[in-house]
Amino acid sequence: MNRRRFISVTGASILAAGGTFYLFSDKNNFTRSDIKEPPSGKISFHPDEKEILYLASLAPSGHNAQPWFVKYIEPYHWIIGNDKTKWLPAVDPTQRETILSIGAFMQNLEYAALHYGYRCDWNILASSNQDENIAEVRLYKQNNNSAFDTSKIVNRRTVRSIYLKDALKKDDVAYLTGNEQNNIYYFANSSKECQWLSEQTIEANRIQMNRDDAEKELANWIRFSSEDAKKYCDGLTTASMEMNGMTGWVVRNFYNREDVMKKSFRDKGVEKVKEQVTHSAGWILISGKDNSVSSLLEIGKRMQGLFLKVRERAIALHPMTQLLEESLGSKKVNEITGIDDNIHFILRTGYIKNYPDPVSLRRPVDWFIRK
Question: The domain spanning residue 88 has which CATH number?
């Protein structure tokens, strides 16, 4: 066989092998719409209960860990719990962010209940962020028509890229802050505060990405394959990290947890953060009076209320809390921004032309309900 013939045959064999691999590879992002809700087994739900609990679960959480469970006491009477198996000790050692996420869950539950014609009576049970039982809720049917549009909950999405650089319009800022100007603050991209927040967010990400414990924790919550995504229905997928097309295919088929620990992966992460913070309308900060459980729950509710407003104005939000998680700390943020109360959320914001559909995964209700 001559050289040209050999190259022709071996080249065809490689292409054939590549084609075969592609046929059996992980070709598509696994997204929320692919999840099949199993039939109820643990609980015989009463009308509207399962729908309300599912809508509540669409709240955001760090690494999409979904750190909540629900104890079913009796119909329309539940306890919202703190799932210790979903904690993020490397980046959230005091479970401050866990309680904020549970607050967002509670806000969704309240809105969903309103949609179905119920009011919620709450009783805060926890005195520390580590307590298992956080809040008790009872739902009571009411005879009014003040329904909430749950499509706002269903369509909420964290958007990380494709931001425009235009500063938010004054009427949009007024709409987003509403009557909470003392707790929700906007710093436009032309301000010195924004410049400082951007620079320090990059630095805080660099610090965090160079901490092995934080990177290992991140790696454990990335669902590299569609198989894992389907198995856990939580965590970060290629779709939620906005890795689509060929990029997503490569990550799903060739990356694993060990790759997250490599210097090249960390360096790319820092470069991505640099790109993100230079393309935005600025920052939104959310504060609260203290770090008590009741205060953190209210701040989580406040954040979720804000998240449910932005889509109709073509505004995106991207939580970037590393500045609060690392040694730079929140005191310096208070000093630079002039905010007196404790700062609990730092959100990158900006207009986007086309709002993408939500893709982040959620565990079926039966997975987080307990008797």
Answer: 3.40.109.10
